[in-house]
Amino acid sequence: MKPLLLCIFSLLILALGAQAGTGDAMLVRVYGDPGDLPRGLDVAGVKRFEWVDAVVDGYELAELSRQGYRVEILIDDLESHRNMVAGVYHGLQEVMDSLATIATNYPEIARLDTLPFTTSQGRVLLALKISDNVDSEEDEIELFFTGLHHAREWPTVNITLFLADTLTSAYGIDPHITTVVDSRQIWVMPCVNPDGYFYCYDEGHDWRKNRTYFPQYGTRGVDLNRNYDGACNGVPLGAWGSNSGSVSRYPDASTYDGPSPISEEEIKATTQLVDEHDFVFMINYHTHGEMVIWPWSYTYRDQVPDNAVISHVGQEMASRITQQDGSGFYDAFQASGPGMYPTNGGACDWGYGYTHYLKGSNLLPYTIETCQSFHPNEVYLDQVVRENFDAALYLCDVADSIRGLMTPYVLPPIVAPLDTISLPDFNIEWTQRNPRANAEVYELEERMGFLPVVDSAEGTTDLWVMDGFTISSARAHDGTHSFYSSLGSGAEDTAVAMTTRHPLPVEAGDSLTFWYYANIEDLYDYAYVEVSTDGMGWDILEFITGTKGWDRLAYSLEDYAGGSVFLRFRYAKDDMDPTSFEGFYVDAVSPVATFDSVAILSSAISDTFWSFVSKDPGEYWYRVRGYNTVKDWGHFGQLLHTEVPTGVAGGLYHRKSASFELSQNRPNPFAANTTMEFVIPDDETGSSFRIFDSAGRTVRTFELTGGSADEYSAATRYVMHWDGRDDSGRVVPSGVYFYSLGSERDRMVRKMVLAR
User: Fold this and answer.
1) Is the alpha carbon torsion for 491, 236, 528, 208 positive or negative?
2) Which residue among 111, 152, 460, 497 is least packed, with the fewest CB closer than 10 Å?
3) 3-class SS at 631?
């Protein structure tokens, strides 16, 4: 009986598909866990664990039926449906006129900005700023609201326009809204995708992407919510182009992520706003599914470092938005959680990862999938925009307290350049790149014995971090082995990578060279050759797809000269034809960095410098990272190089002023008391004198009082006595100590020994 019913159901679906016409767009509901449904669907809405709403034609509907999926036709003619409900929504020019009207009617609190980017069809991108003193950049909490990344998601335009109109029209009337506008800077971008919106709404076509034309493929459009630059956390699966779940590298696909990350002018505009402003929240409105979701979107196995805060706020938002049918509230969960499918290249993953790991601030981004249906009628739409306004107002209310709860990740410090040739006494000094992170201690790493080598995979993988790549004897260019991407099996929606373990010092004229062999599904799957200065943000040097016998590639590293880089080979494929293509091989990679020694000099440096006294001759490379209790260790900055040559006389390291003098303490070593003398030129400002231990911790700070004029120069001479106690009066233990004389322009350090 069951097979007979399935056959009848399939025949009914086929008949409905034929009736709709093979080329006509319809909206269907495909039942089942979204994570288990076909990846190629043009998804319009989703309910986790239950269904996906997709736009299909008659052929696709018949194919779903053939594969045994339970399918319900929700709208059998999307064009007729759009025409029926279109009057509730706004044409593109009306949207632009509405924004201009708000700015004109409320010039003291609203300013309409034309962003410095123009779409492929010549349209401007507009953002409205709402705040008291709107023409000033005040030290106020900032929020960012966007609508219509996807052209057919019309309700998101109404939601953001309602937000802008209500905040401005109620200012000075509603005390709550007045307080919000007076204390916040709110940016609203109702139409991220004007080209796509005009084509979809004004011209009446079902469309999701923007309208960029690719003549080499004869296709149009990039899915703007797949064109952001990945998660920026160094994880290969989270990187743009890794084909995770509902995203495609194929130019004609509805979820095409573009020719490169942030290739589209629309996304350049939104990312520039995020870069230029210190937003606490970024909300991206989409349709449909009635849910509030947050990163990570590319995986459910990991959470963002601020997961406790981001999930709490997300749940609070969802509890303020009633479902369209009044049966409950919006759902709230991590975007790629159980019952969902993963994606990458989206606004939320990039918004969190970029600001956290590369900008060093705290941004909590959310996607709100609004509405219960594709294009709600006027009655339901009014409820949708008002409920979502309540959630937006909640964010405005709590933004300052949420900012206070979060501590930024410690970015790599800004390290002062070292001299190419250093004296035996020299300093490494740095400043904190993002002071709000409040680094508690720093770690200093020292490397010696750098040697660049050619790695032909004939030995171990010690020089690489292997995230799925292996050594293979199946193919080789040099010797008998090569590095191989191991996705030749049935792995689905996965990315693998191999990343150099050691940073590579780059000199002028350096180039990366290697040989590769590719048997990759053309335009669907890709291998990437990448370079990074910090292991978090990556630049793509090469895109490799299709089939190619052993070939050599070379890339100049001139742009990175004077610093250091990591190298990465990444291979990503979708779940189509999982065993038909062999994959990607790489061989004879040069240069790959090796070092004779790598040592941590200290992981407890509380000051922002480290002093070397009587350093042994040699060639050295250094890098620094910082730590705070909340976010743990940040990542290292780039390598700095110096050389202490043989035959250099010992003594003081005078960098700028010959009149700046620091004498050796007397006696040295000492048991109880010692005396130190120094001279400070009168034109030196911000001078200080202190003692620190071998770990770099400050032990004693002296006030610069009681000095006498130096009889030989325009300077002041000081005599200081130390009794071996710290600033709290406690006796310090025996050991090596350093005393430092510093100013805004110079610093000098000497070593002394306390032997009780």
Assistant:
1) positive
2) 460
3) coil
- Of 451, 444, 448, 734, residue with least CA distance to 612: 444
**Domain architecture of the chain: domains with CATH:** 2-76 (3.30.70), 95-405 (3.40.630.10), 414-449+597-644 (2.60.40.10), 451-594 (2.60.120.260), 661-754 (2.60.40.1930)
Nearest to 692 by CA among 615, 625, 630, 609: 609
Amino acid letter for position 733: P
Angle among Cα 450, 453, 459 to the nearest 5 degrees reads 115
Q: In angstroms, rounded to a whole number, what is the distance separating the alpha carbons of residues 221 and 251?
A: 8
CA distances from residue 234 to 238, 285, 336, 635, 745 in whole angstroms, order as listed: 8, 27, 18, 11, 37
- Cα–Cα dist 321/327, whole Å: 11
- Tell me the helix, strand and coil percentages in the chain, rounded to 5: 20, 35, 45
Beta carbons of 579 and 489 less than 8 angstroms apart: yes
Angle formed at CA 477 by CA 471 and CA 478, multiple of 5 degrees: 80
Q: Which residues of the chain have pLDDT under 70?
A: 1-23, 39, 487-493, 576-578, 647-659, 695-696, 711-713, 745
Residue 433 is which amino acid? R
> Which residues share a beta bridge with 492?
none
- Structural element, H or E, at residue 385: helix 378-405
Q: What is the largest CA-CA distance in the chain?
A: 112
All residues at 6 or more sequence positions from 97 whose CB lies less than 8 Å from its CB, including other chains = none
> pLDDT by residue (tens digit) across 217-257?
999 999 999 999 999 999 999 999 997 778 999 999 999 99
Interatomic CA distance for residues 424 and 652, integer angstroms: 9
CB burial of residue 66 (10 Å; 0-12, 13-18, 19+):
exposed
